[in-house]
Amino acid sequence: METLGPLLTPPAAPFDPRELRPGASEVWLEAGFGAGEHLAAQAARHPEVLSLGAEPFVNGFAACLAHIDDAGLDNVRLLHGDVRELMSRLPAACLSRIYVLFPDPWPKTRHKKRRLIEPAFVADAARLLRPGGSLRFATDWADYADWTLERFARSPDFRWTAEAADDWRRPPADHVTTRYEAKRLGDCAPIWLEFERV
Ligand SMILES: C[S@@+](CC[C@H](N)C(=O)[O-])C[C@H]1O[C@@H](n2cnc3c(N)ncnc32)[C@H](O)[C@@H]1O
Average pLDDT in the 35-42 region? Predict the structure, then answer.
């Protein structure tokens, strides 16, 4: 696997991200990081973690590179492309966290099949997370929250961690507001779903 600064070349073969930064305590992945403000802020807070991200939107990708450069981060590797491609090349149990923050909602019925959260994504996330690892999902579309809960509930590999309504109504304490989130384009207040890999 070759890297040029923070850039991952499109992975043609399986690779182990832990070899990109020997000594990293954990590897995290952010799917569809948009302009990368969350990814860069988390990476700055956690220099001991290697943060991976994938985003096909070129303007967002460039904005994230600027955040990384501004903050002088050396613990980030980014793929300009589809996160599912990247996930398919990673080995089992190599990740501790996955973030899926405000994915494209595709609210129209005929477009819902384009949603990122579908059974194959859930299965690959289960394969990649170590036991005790977590996936954080956020949306401001009520129907996408229901959709996601249904798909994770069908997986024996995940447990929804919420114990009280505030656990899904309030942003987690370590959350960093994203650009899309701030626009409030959805049909409800943001909903936060945290799933633990059992
Ligand atoms: C609604 S935006 C949210 C961006 C960011 N997470 C935020 O909250 O500001 C969804 C993003 O997911 C990206 N995306 C869509 N499909 C993707 C995929 N298969 N792999 C990686 N990113 C994807 C889009 O390009 C877009 O930037």
Answer: 97
